[in-house]
Amino acid sequence: MTAPIEATRLTRSFGAEFAVDGIDLEVGTGEIHAIVGLNGAGKTTLMRLLLGMLHPDSGKARLLGSDTQDATSAVWREVGHLIETPFAYPELTVRDNVMASALLHSVPPSSIGAAVDRVIEQFELGHWAKRRARVLSLGNRQRLGLASALVHEPSVLILDEPANALDPAGVVFIRDLLRQYAGEGAAVFVSSHHLDQLARVAHSITVMHRGRQVGMLDPGGIDLEQSFFEIVHQFDMAIREAQS
Amino acid sequence: MRAAYRVEIRKLLRSRVAFVATALLGLLLPAMGLGFYTVAVSGGTGSLADKAAALLTGEGWVGYLGQVDQIAAVALFLGAGVVVAWVFGREHSDRTFPSLFALPVGRGTIAGAKFVVLIVWMVVLSVLIAVVALILGVVAGVAPWDTGVVLSQLSRLVVISLGAAVLSLTMGWVASIGRGYLSAIGTMSVIVALSQIAVLFGTGGWFPFAVPGLMAVAGMEGIPTLTPIQLVLVPGLAAASMWLTVGWWRRVEVV
Fold it and tell me: Which residues of B touch A (CB under 8 A)?
């Protein structure tokens, strides 16, 4: 059976620099797969390739078995994403933003009201529902972005730093939410700078460095931070040796 | 497809930029026309009175609405252009552009919906300008009522306003490829300057951006008669820019 999220020798460069270099990856049904790396490692570029926001130089990105360069509406209907900036139009109210996202994700008109109410309550945005997004704090904008990404109950989730700007309670909430989605059969691909956060929720963790997949971390491992830096350091040493 | 229209309508209705542009163009523009006309026919002396009088295309309703035509020919391009630039450029400036990827509704459809909503807004705005100009003219008593003349001049005003406004749809393409509205604002200033130069050199008829201005002063001494091909270039350029923009939105990457 094809994994809902799949990258095969995925490569993309900007000029002479490879942002993503031959990545192979699979995220199965009900799995939370995390990706970690230093700034500029290529995590966001990889997610953009998986979502069809960038065209690969070579290799394939597939969601639900379809190449993301020519995926149909039926495939995109199943995908929820938050890459960098939340879906939050400043002039629209919180409720209008979520409704706009529901419309663009093809939620049937008869279900939109209930779907919007559900995520506004789930993300504790009720107090701000009638306020314009421009007045929201960073944390609440992030909650709005997540609510907009999930309003259509996707079966594939791709989230770049979903806990960005959230308070500790928000971080716990996101972890529970990801578990819940995976428990219901969604494939979840998530990036984060916080190794501890990932360890508590991910089934598998890929380490990305200089555009490449340089190792895996055991989510149940004792010292993830040390293991992470060892993997990165070893890769850098190997590169230096190869160049000298 | 309906989803994209609903979202774009809501965004435009809630936008301050569109609200301010509608209020300024819909109310202030006819008032300015009336002001210039009043100065022109006052018999006063001074540079403003002389200039206003020199731009008179006739007397009574013809002269008054002719002044509104001339202002509309420039103001609609600039004013509507700001709104068009914002509608397309804000997706980059507000960093909402990546959210429009990986959706069941394609980006080409979203860009198309933006254009359709903008064109409807331009039609409403052009009619609003004509209605406000009519009310101001009646209240100010610019001339005795003549249904034939008034309706003909108001129709002309709507056509010139709409012509100038649809030319600003080209800014959708500029704001898209420039990834922000500032590029389009800068381009509009250059276009207005080029229009002046084209008219000065007598080639304005072949420069579509100058055509609404030439229509507004048609019949005055030294103004060339516009050919049907020159008139068709106006909607033609708007259509071509929409086609280019939709194509760009379909193919573009997030960078």
Answer: 3-4, 6-7, 10-11, 14-16, 94-96, 98-106, 110, 253-255
